[in-house]
Amino acid sequence: MSVARVTEIIASSPKSFEDAVAIGIARASKTLQNVTEAWVQSQKVSVKDGKAAEYRVILKVTFILKD
User: Fold this and answer.
1) Residues 6+ apart with CB under 8 A from 43
2) Any residues with CB less than 8 A from the CB of 30 and at least 6 apart, and which?
3) In angstroms, how far is CA 59 from the centroid of its own chain?
4) Phi, psi angle pair for 29, to nearest 5°
5) pLDDT tens sequence across 24-52
6) CA distances from 42 to 21, 32, 33, 60, 66 (A)
7) What's the CA gap between 55 and 45, in Å, rounded?
8) What angle do CA 61, 62, 67 make, to 5 degrees?
């Protein structure tokens, strides 16, 4: 039997929400071991001069704790 933990992270990208998610997962995987899944809790866009300037996501990342 394993025990998992969930942590919340915020990631951003100037390209897209999908890119922000990929950046967040990649960064979380550098620090956390055994990352098994992530889900997007929320999304928002910062706007500059009437255009999307930055895409931000709040991710819940699940990882398995070592025995």
Assistant:
1) 17, 55, 56, 57, 58
2) none
3) 4
4) -70, -20
5) 999 999 999 999 999 999 999 999 999 99
6) 11, 21, 24, 10, 29
7) 5
8) 140
Of 27, 23, 26, 21, the closest CA to residue 59 belongs to 21
The answer on pLDDT for 59 being more than 80 is yes
pLDDT for 5-29, tens place per residue? 999 999 999 999 999 999 999 999 9
pLDDT on residue 67: 78
Structure tokens at 62: 């699940």
- d(C-alpha 48, C-alpha 56), whole Å: 14
Cβ proximity of 14 and 23 under 8 Å: no
